[in-house]
Amino acid sequence: MHDTRRGSLSCVGLGMTLGSHLTPLARSHIEQADVVFAALSDPIAEEWLKRMHPDVRSLQPHYAEGKPRMKTYREWVARMMADLRAGKRVCGVFYGHPGIFAWSPHKVIEQARAEGYEAHMEPGISAEDCLYADLGFDPGRYGCQHFEASQLLYCERRIDTAGYLVLWQVGVVGNRSVGRFETGPAYRALLVERLEQDYPPGHEVIVYRGATLPIERARIQRITLRELAGAPLTAEETVVLPPAVTLQPNRAMLDRLQALDLRGQEATAA
Ligand SMILES: C[S@@+](CC[C@H](N)C(=O)[O-])C[C@H]1O[C@@H](n2cnc3c(N)ncnc32)[C@H](O)[C@@H]1O
Questions:
Q1: Which atom of ligand 1 is the closest one to the Cα of 167?
Q2: Is the full-model pTM beyond 0.90?
Q3: Can you tell me where the transmembrane regions are (predicted)?
Q4: Taking the alpha carbons of 27, 29, 33, 39 in that order, is the dihedral positive or negative?
Q5: Angle between helices 103-114 and 69-85 (to 10 degrees)
């Protein structure tokens, strides 16, 4: 059994926009760590992080062309676990929210806890949070499904077209193992084919990129579903499909609710 007072682990989110999204609590995890590992989308963000801590180690060099993505992520976990087992306070810093569409932070926390270490995840502002603000929609209005785009190709999933559909990692759709490198229009054409089972080809598709630097503005492109395959897309964009059909009332449930209301009123009157 390890001594839980020795090494400890935190995985924190830096938020999306450099300098403005970091929470005081995430910052304190960074500052109090013995060693900081960084998996950030932007080298400028890494430089900024280095101003908060003298020992920031980038996890980016583990990526390589042709190398399976999972191998890279397992190496990240191994790097953080090695310092944790050496008794250090380890902080993993990830862009956005460390627990959203990110495998390694969940895995390293699970492994650390299984070995008896204290481990904590500190949330951050994710691309999801930014898109509600920038695109101006509330996921509670019609409901909202989120999928990793590739999962729609690999698995049988049911899309509810009465709500919003948010697709992550569309730029690398169909990339089953190799690196984080972008796949081309032929891969996205398969995604469009899958989506056309549920949506008309002329349905609106929003290609969204939130600002990562304070001097930038969000990029919002509105195209049609049929144009999605040919649209230029990087690994940093998220795709949103607004609802295609109106909400259908559930008459049976509404009747039962009304019956309950009436019974309640009768009981109060008696
Ligand atoms: C591996 S996930 C990481 C998400 C991150 N943990 C978060 O909380 O936003 C990468 C995906 O996040 C989305 N993403 C990353 N940067 C983005 C940005 N600047 N604007 C919009 N979406 C972004 C894209 O869907 C991208 O494929």
A1: 25
A2: yes
A3: none
A4: negative
A5: 40
